[in-house]
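Dear colleagues,

For the upcoming journal club I promised to circulate an example of a predicted protein-ligand complex. I picked one with magnesium ion because it came up in last month's discussion. The inputs are reproduced below in full, followed by the predicted structure.
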Amino acid sequence: MSATLGLAVTAALVCGVAGLLLILAVLPAMELCGVIRRLAKGDYRPVMLNGSPLFFCDTAVNLRQIAEMLERQKTLLAEEEFSLSMILESMTEGVVITGADLKIRLVNKAASSMFHLQGTQEGLLLHEVFMSHELLGVAQRAVGTGGVQQGELAFGIPGRGGRCHLVVTAAALKTPTMELPDGLLLVFYDVTRLRELEAVRREFVANVTHEFRTPLSVINGYLETLGEKGVSREMQRKSIAIMQRHGERLNRLIDDLLTISRMEERGLRLETAPTDIARILRDVIQQLEGQIADRGVAVTLEMPRELPSIDVEGYRIEQALSNLLANALRHGAPTGGKVTISAMQEGPDLAIRFRDNGPGIPLQDQQHLFDRFYRVGGDRARQTGGTGLGLSIVKNIITAHGGRVALESSPGEGSTFSVFLPLITLQE
Ligand SMILES: Nc1ncnc2c1ncn2[C@@H]1O[C@H](COP(=O)(O)OP(=O)(O)O)[C@@H](O)[C@H]1O
Ligand SMILES: [Mg+2]
């Protein structure tokens, strides 16, 4: 009986101890294991331990701190990743990142649009996507040297004429302690506009040189003749007259070049004031009276009794309109010339037109006519004595006033050059 009792007591004791162990150690340990599993899976939410942490008090506290630290790191990492991708996507420079094997890891939005790429390029080889020997060379040199390399790419733009020019800088991704680079950073900078401007400048210098050379070589030629012995008085007179004419042409060239450069320098800063266009037109006709009479051209001015005054820089507008009348006289009909100048309000604009009955302008020349130095018939037209800069000055002046120029002409039917100036100038 007492043995049975003893056994029962022992069993009860064992059960009690086991229960106690279960409550104090096994359950908290299981809870801790659960939390560790959760952390291992990347769930770093705050750790709440409910079981009695008698034996695991410190461990539980440490675990909570680890979870909090991991959660903070995760947030920081996500923030960094977000701002990095924001920076890359909002950059105007194209960015491509590859591995050392030149397999693409990242292409930003600007690079995609520069190269007209669609879909994802990640995992593809650099030259498969960009198909440029120059680019491949720059990339390979950067990986090979572990440094920075630069090159320039030029390619046709699909869907529109012209070429796109990109400067590419390739930098190996490598810390000083690394022997080989881990990858490559390629940055593309669009220099198309810059290259276009350089080409315009080169062409301009070549044109100016050409324009100056002709009168100068004529003057030099006649100076040599005059230096010879026994030149007749008649020849002297003729030579001086020719040299004077070419000297005047050089003067006109310099004046026109200065006007163009001043207009470009000043940009839109015009000194405007309410101006009476009717008065300007009458002045322009009066200034060119000599040429009108010499060529026997009949000039008529048509305009309503009242014209609204417009806010322009009078001196510049007069310069533009005088160029258009001079052209109508110079390039119009050689005999029996008629020029009609009209001014009237048309919608929001004041329209001023110069209509002549000259030879007209072939269609293929019309789109280039307002370019500097462009003349119909190329070199032959130089004989008329102009500089080839007049219409470019006209366009410059009118567009600076917020207006526009237009041309209607067909060969054999004369030409009409129109200027539209806004009646109301918008406040800057
Ligand atoms: N009214 C016109 N009729 C025919 N051709 C014209 C007329 N106005 C201009 N052109 C053509 O446009 C060219 C450019 O004109 P412009 O720039 O004023 O230069 P320029 O008068 O000095 O030759 C002229 O050389 C001429 O060939
Ligand atoms: Mg002219």
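Two points we might discuss: The chain has a mean pLDDT of 89. Residues 323, 326-327, 386, 390 surround magnesium ion (ligand 2) (CB under 6 Å).

See you all on Thursday,
B. R.
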